Structures are given as C-alpha cells and as structure tokens.
Amino acid sequence: MIRRVAVVMGGTESEHEISVRSGREVLEHLPPDRYETLAVTWRTDGRFEIPSGSEPVEAAAALAALREVDVAFLALHGPGGEDGRIQGFLETAGIAYTGSGVLGSALAMDKLLTKDVARRCGLETPPHATDIGADGSPVGFPCIVKPAAAGSSDDLLVADDREDLVEAFGAVSGRWSSVMIESLIEGPEVTGAVVENPETGEPEVLPLVEIRHEGHRVFDYEAKYRPGEAEEICPAPLDEVVADRVRRASLTMHEALGCRGVSRSDFILRDGVPVFLETNTIPGLTRESLLPRAARAAGRTMADLLDGLVRCALRAREVS
C-alpha cells in the first residue's frame, strides 16, 4: 500500500534554511515504492507553499491539504516547528505526524525545564542562571550565553570575563525572549540518538558520535554546518563503561521527556561522566547531520531511517 506523506519543512524562525535542507533529504530518500510525497514549505512570513514553489496559502488552506495525506513528516527545527506548536495544530486536525507529541516537544525545547528534568533523573548538568547578576558571572568564567529555547547552536556565545558576558547577554537577549547563562564544561562532546522500533515502540540507542571542533571552543552554528569545521567520529572511541553511561543517559532523557519516534541528546564528558546539555526532538537530517551518521554506523540507510520514522507515526496514531 502506497502511503501519502507530506514533508513539512522551513518554518518562521532562524532555522528555516537548515530545515529546508533536512526536508529535501527526506524527499530524496523516502522509498518511492512505499510513499508518495508532497513537499510543504512553511515560509518565514507564516504562509505555506503546497507544493513547494507554488503560490503561498494561509494556514487554513494548508491544513485542508494536510488532511488528505496519511502522515506529515516534520523536518522542522527550532521554535514553531519543534516546540509543540505545529504538533498541536496537527493534533487538533487529527493528522498523524512524525516525532514527539505536544508535551514532549514543548518540554524538550525549553532548555531550562529540560535541565530540571535531567537533574530529577540523577544526571549532571552544567550550573546555569537566567540573568547576569550584580557583578562577575553567576556561574563563573568561562561561560556560555545562549537562547533558552532554540536549536542548531543558534546564537551560542562564549564569555571569558564580565565585559564579554554583558555584550553576549545583550546580543542574545536582543533576539530571544528567554536567555540562559551556563558554565562552560571542558571535555569531549558526545551525542546519543534514540530511535524507536516501529513495530513495538521499544527505544534503541544508535552508535554514539563524538564531536571534535578544533578552532571552535563550542559546537556552534558555523562548526555544525560549515564543511570541514568539525570532525564527527562514529562510533565514538569511548571506553565501554563510559559509552554505556551515555547510552543510558540518552534513553533516560528520551523517556523522561516523553519523546516519541526519535530524539538526540547531547553531553560533555567530565572525568568519564556524561554532563547533560540538551535533547533534540527533531534532529537534523541534512548530509552533515549527526542522526543519519549514527544510523549509517548501525548499518541503516537513510531510507531505512526515514521509513522507520513514518511507521512510528502511523503506529502512534493506531495506539492513541
């Protein structure tokens, strides 16, 4: 049976272009013998192109088109697409979609709430604050200033002294309503992707990826998306005891946040202990992205990965 899948990409925020790149990869690799695809681009002005490149329409018309498909494949990143808003839009209309539900999406997008969940689960996470304070840094130096609800390492700035901190905080708060300051933890950066079995719903951790970004103090937007700026090693060359800690922590966050289908959690290793940074509920699907790399290391093609995510969405609708 051929299923109709609408690949929704773009969005109104800063990750629009990365999302479009993810969406194009999905369109290219969804198995054509199983799926008929429709490209849906959410424009930065809030309107939709259905199919991509057509005259834009308002949300009501987009909703009518999406009601004609079996699954909406969400290739959206960041606010609007990954924070529960589009998920609520689709839930209200009874449309199946890939990835986490409204609550899991909203919770994981809010880094402050996610850190609280991690601590309650017994995981370490860097000290943080939401304001500069009277003098110095509330978490010491060096520290990182970043949006509390964004992705793709957007507006991730390092401060080494108070002057840096004031400048960075002003720059980030000028673009985002919620800002956090976090202690910069030194150590190897590792990410653990979790995918669910589309038949049983059982989560599985894919091979871990270690990220090395020489020349960049943190894995920022440039290091993540400019070719040659970072080295991503999969499977990560870790001691098995340490690797097992990261795998268990990745599963813990996937389940504690109520993620569905897929998630990817990021950690810094400090003395062999994973220090939790954040969880992504719609990991990137570009050629440079970490989730496809981990899937390949597990012996899965991009088509296998995407097919599994669509089947998870269909299963979720059946069991809900």
Descriptive notes:
The chain has helices at residues 16-29, 59-66, 85-93, 102-109, 111-120, 162-173, 221-225, 240-256, 290-297, 302-319, and strands at 3-10, 35-42, 48-49, 71-74, 128-129, 143-147, 157-159, 179-183, 189-196, 203-205, 209-212, 231-233, 262-270, 273-280. It has 320 residues and is an alpha+beta fold. The protein folds into three domains: 3-98, Rossmann fold (3-Layer(aba) Sandwich); 107-124 and 186-300, ATP-grasp fold, B domain (D-amino Acid Aminotransferase, Chain A, domain 1, 2-Layer Sandwich), CATH 3.30.470; 128-183, Dna Ligase, domain 1 (2-Layer Sandwich). Strands 9, 10, 11, 12, 13 and 14 form a six-stranded antiparallel beta sheet that branches. Strands 3-2-1-4 form a four-stranded mixed beta sheet, sandwiched between helices. The chain has a four-stranded antiparallel beta sheet with strand order 5-8-6-7, with helices on one face. Strand 2 (35-42) and strand 3 form a beta hairpin. The mean pLDDT is 92.
